[in-house]
Amino acid sequence: MSPWIDLRSDTVTQPTSAMREAMARAEVGDDVYGEDPTVNRLEAEAARRMGKEAGLFCASGTMANLLGVLSQTQPGDELICEAEAHVYYYEVAGMSRIGGVIPRTLPGERGRLLPEQVERALRAPDIHFPPTRLLCLENTHNRGGGSTYGVEETERLARVAHDHGLKVHLDGARIFNAALARGVEAARLAAPADTVMFCLSKGLSAPVGSVLCGPEETIRRARKLRKLVGGGMRQAGVLAAAGLVALEQMVDRLAEDHARAWRLAQALAGTPGVELDPETVETNIVSFEVTCCPEKAFLAALRDEGVLAGSPGPGRVRMVLHRHIGDAELEAAVGAVRRVTARPGAA
Ligand SMILES: Cc1ncc(COP(=O)(O)O)c(C=O)c1O
């Protein structure tokens, strides 16, 4: 186990011993032939949880988002997403480089778009314009500090898209966190979207994997495209086995991460040199401004205290709660922040 108190991301979580055992015992086959029973089980279970017809096991969230885009667009199409959406900000322009799709970004409020904004961005057919084919939403929103959409907001956004002939892809990397925060089943948040992807490898602690879910026909296209991008895996059941344990055993415990995120936010909100409104903390991500010193100096000083955190941009720091951050680690992290911000010269 890492000697650090690692708050950089929930992606650092290690597989549980139940996952390791399931991986060792997994029944496997060649998944490119559709013959891996454990992958098939995971895909069916993921689709059931998302309320969709079919699922596709992918190597990463980035791959699942890419396939969600590629399976619902053609080269030269336009896609609408929020300006800091993961699919735009962090995915190496895969949609453009591989899919030939041009993103149109709209500024959101902590990552969230309004239906009126999307409506205004849609254009009437014109010889000059690319066809707009897809709306991408993100729930929870990573750079938005773990912000969430509720069922109604998602429905209204999707309705605008559908009324204008667009499909909707939901980047639900942390959809179970969103569902917990909103007190609804994940399937209800996914229902308005045509496709949804979620990650097994973040707060759910699986070592690898994400699942793209959607209509049978779209997933069939995505499966072929997965082969194109080199994502056709063979005895992938050893990985899917951990994913099944993640779905069975790890979803409910996300509530602990949310509770600790809230406690962390409360503790840091009163700390001089930190600016944070705890009301903005909805899930397991705590994002705040540091005014005591440049964020790089803050992160370096924190590291000297044994605490790792990240920065989404100048002046900002992000801490993500997960299974390896218990009460003791939380208290230690708060203590470290207080010592760093109180250092002579910090202000
Ligand atoms: C919202 C969101 N979407 C997609 C991804 C991509 O997942 P992966 O790192 O598995 O490619 C991430 C990863 O942090 C994410 O936060």
Written account of the structure:
Helix content is 41%, strand content 17%. It is of the alpha/beta class and 347 residues long. It has two domains: 5-11 and 253-342, Aspartate Aminotransferase, domain 1 (Alpha-Beta Complex), CATH 3.90.1150; 15-249, Aspartate Aminotransferase, domain 2 (3-Layer(aba) Sandwich), CATH 3.40.640. The chain has a seven-stranded mixed beta sheet with strand order 2-8-7-6-5-3-4, with helices on both faces. 50% of the residues are buried. The mean pLDDT is 97. It binds pyridoxal-5'-phosphate. Pyridoxal-5'-phosphate binds at residues 11, 60-62, 65, 86, 138, 142, 171, 173, 199, 201, 210. This is Threonine aldolase. One of its GO terms (molecular function) is L-allo-threonine aldolase activity.
Write the layout of secondary structure elements.
Elements: E1 5-6, H1 17-25, H2 37-50, E2 54-58, H3 61-70, E3 78-82, H4 86-89, H5 94-97, E4 102-106, H6 115-121, E5 132-138, H7 151-163, E6 167-171, H8 175-182, H9 186-190, E7 195-199, E8 210-214, H10 216-228, H11 237-249, H12 254-269, E9 274-275, E10 285-290, H13 295-304, E11 307-308, E12 310-313, E13 316-320, H14 327-342
Helix pairs in contact: 1-11, 2-11, 3-10, 6-7, 12-14
Bound molecules: pyridoxal-5'-phosphate.
Pyridoxal-5'-phosphate binds at residues 11, 60-62, 65, 86, 138, 142, 171, 173, 199, 201, 210.
